[in-house]
């Protein structure tokens, strides 16, 4: 191998590893691995700068600058894979003094060793540069801007332009993340729909509370207590009624996670003909017509169903008309229970067969007085309805009690219970006589 070729290899190695000892054995190993000087230079560049873009024009220019003609650079120029390379031998010993630095204009361009006084050693021939107009373009890094005044220029060596690394597939990762979110969202939405789906034989509790038991018996262990509007489904229906004329069913009550964690047991869902559970539509309507918490807590299933019956036949009154009730300790009540003797069931002295209440439209300050009667199957019917704007309380006067009424203080004994409706301007007395209602004002 020629002296100029050895010098080029030495300059190139010391540019990247200043403490390396370049000897004949190392040069020989490179010849065996890479062939001629052209192949050695190319593979060393790829070794130290894996992403460098080394062109034939660049190699020609570099070899020419060291006085190496095309005939000398005739060996293999195919880069050899990193795994096939032999490791560089370590320097035999550490130098006790600093290695001589190479002056490099464009790494690994013409790295000539210089003497201590800065002059090029005589034994290394000078190669005249061709005119600027004939120079081939050399791959270099983008030109750096001039440093600001007072700032030292960077001593970092310039290197051949590296091929740009492919951008990481950030957009692909983002698409994958979005797809995962969509899949999880769809799965979650599907699970949510499945947990809350409408079930066959589904009902809603329409009384204040129902107890669930382990078996269809009031002496059985209590599992839980469920309130108004609780959603459940009927699993099994018991054909016979219990001694109290109540109808039991095995049910599953929806839990906190819908039907995924429901509770199963037995509940009474009807008493005679009075249902304790209805469809969602009827349940929401009943919730709408009960105007306050007292109405929810104090009205039993028989009277709830009576109001539901009335409002379903008078839908134009919704949603403004409602039934309100007062606490039991209050003197002025808005609902009462009396025996007017209208039906056979109502004629029983021990039975309060009629339900009387005042419903209100608070937005317009309007009120109505309603009287419900019931047949033997406890089915309701509206038997009296009248506007009673100004009425604020109801009071039941028992049948057979002497009543003094009017300015003349007329006394008489009603044939049935009488209902006193207190009014802002006086009072009204409502009672049933000769198969019709009589109304007296004070």
Q: Give me the count of strands.
A: 19
What is the approximate shape? Answer: rod-shaped
Structural Rg: 52 Å
DSSP strand (E) fraction? Answer: 25-35%
Count of helical regions: 8
The class by helix and strand makeup works out as alpha+beta
What is the average of the pLDDT values? 77
Show unreliable segments.
Answer: 80-136, 138-142, 151-159
Main sheet overview: 6 strands, antiparallel
CA-CA gap between termini? 137 Å
Provide the helix percentage: 10-25%
How would you describe what is shown here?
It is a single chain. With 442 residues, this protein is α+β, with helices and mostly antiparallel strands. The protein folds into 3 domains: 3-134, no CATH class; 202-278, SH3 Domains (SH3 type barrels); 314-441, no CATH class. It has 8 helices and 19 strands. It has helices spanning 3-16, 24-34, 37-48, 56-65, 170-195, 280-289, 293-298, 301-312; strands at residues 202-205, 209-213, 222-227, 231-237, 246-255, 258-271, 274-275, 277-278, 321-323, 335-338, 354-361, 366-374, 380-387, 391-397, 403-405, 410-412, 418-423, 426-433, 436-441. The strands form 5 sheets. Strands 7-6-5-4-1-8 form a 6-stranded antiparallel sheet. Strands 9, 10, 11, 12 and 13 form a 5-stranded antiparallel sheet that branches. A 4-stranded antiparallel sheet has the order 14-17-18-19, with no helix packed on it.
